[in-house]
Amino acid sequence: MKKALFALLAVALLPQGAHAAGPIKIGMTVPGLQFPFFVTMKNEAEQAAAKLGATIIFVDAQNDSAKQQAAVENFVAQKVDAILISPMTVDSLVPAIEEAAKAGIPVATVDRKANTDAVLVHVGADNVQGGRAAAKYIIDKLGNKGSVIELEGTPGASAAIDRKTGFDEVIKKSNVKLLVSQTAEFNRAKGQSVMESLIQKYPNFDAVFGANDEMIIGAVEAMSAAGIKGKATCGFDATPDAFAYMKEGKLGATIDQFPGKQASQALGYLVDFVKSKKKPAQQETEWDDVVDAIDKLDG
After folding, report:
1. Residue 287 pLDDT > 90, yes or no?
2. What is the DSSP string of 97-135?
3. Residue 157 and residue 55 share a domain
């Protein structure tokens, strides 16, 4: 009886809104683990969660918006303490995120944004600035002349929109001509097949920008198969495969977005809120120090 009374008193003495004893449960879903960027994000998020006294319930959306929506709805049904999401597109998870908010479950988005104010916080690198950095690299490599092919990411994804915005902005102010901009949906195989087609339509290109490393690697393979050499190339995300291609001289550059650090910071905000209802100083945190990884191999 005394033990039961003590337990009741302990709960009653918890600060209002504080989390009871035990690990904090955080639901996490990303577009797909077929993308190395999100593998890094998941692995480092799980490491960060362990240090913060949290456990992650992870769901791979497998590049399917409906699966990702179902995952978030299941997190709400399971009554997790918080949810960490990198949404497929800006609109696909809005209803599910707003449902979570109504249930009192804080949601943080990372890397990719959602078109709703119901999130506690968004943490990401500045994808527009990253697109600008990629364009500047291409312009410098071409001596501010020639032409470039652009491979866009998944239509509707904030990362795809922002990277294209930054890249196009700088290219249009230069003397480099943008021949064509076409989606390959952040996918390596599609990057290769799209590039194979574009090589036939635009044989006199001088450079290729892929809005992620998977697409640019696919494009590099298409060019290699066609016997095309000496083109300026730039990817995005600084994945291990991209650095391997750079070491072999197959890829010129990639842009580093630090997916693990983004997720770790977002997790910190979620855990602080769950424990003490402490909100981040601002709802959106975008790093403006996107690192151009072109010379990283020299370090």
Report:
1. no
2. HHHHHHTT--EEEESS--S-S-SSEEEEE-HHHHHHHHH
3. no
